[in-house]
Specification:
This protein is α+β, with helices and mostly antiparallel strands and 326 residues long. The chain folds into three domains: 1-98; 108-244, Sandwich (Jelly Rolls); 255-325, Phage tail protein beta-alpha-beta fold (3-Layer(bab) Sandwich). It has helices at 11-27, 31-42, 46-67, 85-90, 243-249, 264-271, 284-287, 300-311, and strands spanning 103-107, 115-117, 122-127, 133-136, 141-146, 151-163, 172-176, 179-183, 187-192, 198-204, 206-211, 218-223, 226-230, 237-240, 256-263, 278-281, 290-296, 314-318, 321-325. Strand 9 and strand 10 (198-204) form a beta hairpin. The chain starts with 10 loop residues before the first helix and ends with a strand. GO terms for molecular function: sigma factor antagonist activity. Keywords: Membrane, Transmembrane, Transmembrane helix.
Length: 326
């Protein structure tokens, strides 16, 4: 709870504290609480984005509750909420949170049978009408297909975090190509990029991963702190992950990219998901060099300059392109 919060928190702890602050803000903050919130936000750059997301979800839930059980988000057209200066700067409507081009573009109301997408460098919160919430990463596309007995989400491209409300009568299913991920109540990430295996990372709870492209469909039960990779050509691979790896995998929610021994070629491909500026590496030896660290997702030029210093390289910067060479 606010007031007794350690300065160093995990992403999950930050989300929980942000939700507490959002609830208190809905009731109104005293001047002392307002100062305490500002202090908490200033201690960790990840907290601004978490608080803005929590405020967005809180606003959605508040409106839904006020309208009663017959509320249908597809038909709702409410008045714009007056936001504070803090919320405007952090993005009560368009959540920039200091992320520059890699920015949260705000809250998207949804119901059954709707599609949602983000462009390069954008991120979005999508609350669902059962209380579950989807956080869409850059350049991603989903389709919502809820029915009376199943909550289905089609991930056509990109990456999303799913925070699922429990409903045993209606399983929550994410369909990513030939990979099917089923959960009742949990928090997990699914990543689907062209030419790569579908990746599933479980933060909390348990999910079942099923590969429907195989002659005999196989299902793998995946608990928290585990990751799975599923491709059309082979069995599902399961890998245990450390909490620090989960933190790195979730860095995109704060507008950052985390590398841990990735090659520069892989890093260049990852930056291309967040920015129109391309990192060009023509020398295969340079492309195989590895990098570790946390970088701003919307700053491929800054990343390239840092890499150049580390590896004794040179940079050539042109419009929408930065070249690394010796």
């Amino acid at each position: 709870m606010p007031g007794n919060v350690p300065k160093h928190q995990t992403a999950s702890e930050i989300d929980a504290t942000a939700a507490d602050w959002a609830a208190r803000a809905d009731r109104g903050l005293t001047p002392a609480e307002d100062a305490e919130l500002d202090a908490w936000l200033g201690e960790d750059p990840r907290r601004a984005g978490a608080y803005a997301r929590a405020r967005a979800v809180s606003a959605y839930s508040e409106r839904a509750a006020a309208l009663g059980p017959a509320y249908d988000p597809r038909r709702f057209e409410g008045r714009k909420k007056i936001v504070t200066r803090r919320e405007w700067l952090m993005g009560g409507g368009a959540v920039a949170a200091g992320l520059g081009a890699a920015a949260w573009v705000g809250l998207s109301m949804t119901g059954r049978g709707q599609a949602h997408l983000t462009h390069v460098g954008e991120m979005k919160v999508v609350p669902l009408d059962d209380g579950s919430v989807i956080s869409l990463n850059t350049h991603s596309h989903i389709r919502v297909a809820y029915s009376h007995n199943r909550r289905a989400i089609h991930l056509d491209d990109g990456e999303a975090l799913f925070d699922v409300v429990k409903d045993a009568a209606r399983p929550f299913v994410v369909l990513a190509g030939e990979t099917e991920i089923t959960a009742v109540g949990t928090s997990f990430v699914v990543r689907r990029l062209a030419g790569l295996p579908v990746q599933v990372l479980v933060r909390e709870g348990i999910v079942d991963v099923r590969q429907t492209a195989q002659p005999v469909a196989t299902t793998l039960r995946l608990p928290a702190m585990n990751r799975a990779e599923a491709s059309d050509s082979g069995p599902i691979r399961r890998l245990a992950v450390a909490p620090t790896e989960v933190e790195r995998a979730m860095a995109w929610r704060e507008g950052r990219i985390a590398f841990e021994g990735d090659t520069l070629r892989q890093a260049a491909a990852e930056f291309a998901r967040y920015s129109d500026t391309r990192i060009v590496i023509e020398d295969p030896q340079i492309a195989r060099e590895t990098v570790t660290g946390l970088f701003q997702a919307n700053d491929p030029v800054g990343f390239s300059k840092a890499v150049a210093v580390s590896f004794g390289l040179r940079t050539q910067i042109r419009e929408k392109q930065v070249r690394l060479y010796r």
